[in-house]
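QA checklist item 7 of 12: single-chain prediction sanity check.
[x] sequence parsed
[x] length recorded as 332
[x] structure emitted
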Amino acid sequence: MSKKILVTGATGFIGSRLVEKLVSSPDQIFVLVRKTSDLTALSGVVDKIRLVYGDITDRASVDAAVKGMDLVYHTAGITYMGDRKNDQLYPINVTGARNILHSSLAAGVERVVHVSSISAVGVAFQGKPLDEKSPWNFDVLGLEYARTKHLAEIEVAEAVKQGLDCVIVNPAFVFGAGDVNFNAGRMIKDIYRKRLPCYPTGGICVVDVDIVTETIVAAMEKGRSGERYIIGGDNVTYKQLVDTIARVTGAPRVLFPFPFWLGKLLKPVIDTLKEKGLVSKLFNLSMFRVASELLYFDSSKAERELGMKREPYENCMRKAFEWYRERNMLDD
């Protein structure tokens, strides 16, 4: 018997790829979008889904969207590593999550998967990959995005106490085909276009979007209620990452490390170069502060309990680059 499934955040990178996966099932797929939403990422499946108009920050519209649904995937959120959008982060990431959770509870939804972030897990200051039980310590970096993702997970814990069946997934840094808004893919484009003259001194956990969406579906099917699952892959330094991207794209290697203290010192120069389009938009102090640390994670729980796959991160970079190149998205 088919289910009615609601997906929030379906116009985003992970959400759109998740919808593409879900439409191959016999289930009825509904997506919650604003009337002003750009549906470009859903262009290939728009005839196979049903649009529900509303806004996660508006409880009444969320109540209407959730009514009659069997399952909910909450992927909506705003990901921003700077500080210019701080006023948007709490309403979308925290209030929005609370609305989805409470509406789902009131409507008798069978299960919710809440798509969080590794920023709600923490920073591997000692270099040892963190797991789901690591105490949250991202507050040391003063990043509002991380704070809001942490607070949203507290909302989940509260909803679970009230009786909601909800599973949390924490994707790492997601690359891959379909990143139309150049989230993580911005680094691929900027290295290809020679706009990234140096690299940060930290490291990240890299995972392919298709592995993420497969694991999100597995979390819905067999994740344990109230548990969180890190969806990650290879832990690599930015030096290793930029070398790999340069090799895959055929671009010149990025040779120089760029420590955070130097970024602070050169901020006026960097801002001028950004305005002229000569260096990457990734050059902002908040981003570099985070990128100077090691965001390394242990995904063995998701492998063990959800059957999460692993593949070399170079494969992911190649798939993303070829997807962009086929669509002429790297030339501007």
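[x] summary fact logged: The CA atoms of residues 219 and 308 lie 10 Å apart.
[ ] second reviewer sign-off
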